[in-house]
Write a structure and sequence with these properties.
F1FO ATP Synthase; about 90 residues; 3 helices
């Protein structure tokens, strides 16, 4: 029963936590890139390239979390089976 409770918590909170963390990371990366562009306009091309690559890596982690969500969702039993375990 503890396994099922932990699985429900992980499935229910895993993706939202990953998405919020990625959003904060992307916002921080974009803010830092804009600051760098403002301070050194001659380096805009290099900064944009690094920004796009870093945003792609951050987004790939969110996609990985979504794949893990769907894999774990398949491991959850049906509601009828859970009610049988409780009774």
């Amino acid at each position: 029963m503890t396994y099922l409770a932990a699985l429900v918590i992980v499935v229910g909170l895993g993706v939202p936590i990953a998405v919020l963390s990625a959003a904060l990371g992307q916002a921080r990366a974009a803010a830092s890139a804009l600051e760098g562009m403002a301070r050194q306009p001659e380096a805009i091309g290099k900064i944009q390239t690094a920004l796009i690559i870093s945003l792609a890596f951050i987004e790939s982690l969110v996609i990985y979390a979504l794949v893990m969500f769907f894999l774990l969702l398949g491991k959850l039993p049906e509601t009828a089976e859970i009610l049988k375990l409780i009774r």
